[in-house]
Write a structure and sequence with these properties.
single chain, 292 residues, alpha/beta, Rossmann fold, 2 domains, 6-stranded mixed beta sheet, two-stranded antiparallel ribbon, 10 strands
Amino acid sequence: MLPAETLKKIRRIQIRTSHMVSDLFAGQYHSVFKGQGMEFQEVREYLPGDDIRAIDWNVTARMGHPFIKKFVEERELTVMLVVDISRSNDFGSASQMKRDLAAEVAAVLAFAAIQNNDRVGLILFSGETEHYLPPRKGARHVLRVIRDVLHHRPQKSGTSISAGLDFLNSVANRKTVTFLISDFIDHDYERALAVSAKRHDLIAIQIRDQREQTLVPAGIIEWEDAETGRRILIDTSSASTRAALEDSSARRQSLLLDTFKKRGVDVIELRTGQPYAMELVRFFKKREKRRG
């Protein structure tokens, strides 16, 4: 049985995100993602003006005159939510933890998908893939998605984005719209990112917290790495220490964004404790404009 606090969170997220989808994303989801995939319908005889790239050479050879493959726009999409639940997400210096923000964003995307009669699936990963919810439709299924993101506790230490993406590619034979939700505190996953970006419409959603980028002068504090348990003392009153942290964070972020750009992966940057709706709206509008 779920803890009472988790049930309250699920209910709050359900109310908040379902209204957000109705108010902010009406029509945009459809225009941005519909038509991303095409499915084979039939083979018919070639007609003047048809695209010669669609010729089915095997049928043409057997029949002695040209035939082409006819494709139609897929009526349904499969949306996959690949969510990082590693221990570094149990952090938040504002009003929410990174895990809670990830659950809200996943809920918004899931409700938007089912509103358009699409299927939604979920993959949760830490140091390895820990949970898989096959794609389905319906509001009850979305509530299950929210519950699993909030309630599933990581069994493995560390973070392996590669594990999550490799699992995605093993279970999704057809192209999906995949949202990779993570703080991206990991390394050596560019190969998996490149493979997934070729197979799927891959969008990265980075969840960050302000205190991972800047420190306030609060004297000496003990800082614990949530994934390794390693503890260190930091003198936050030192201007040089704070500057070094900010510089390291900025360089790491620049490298991450360069990696996304290199692999053709769109990215949405979100922060805990800050409104995220308009960031999602900007993403949808940018994609819609690009497609138009």
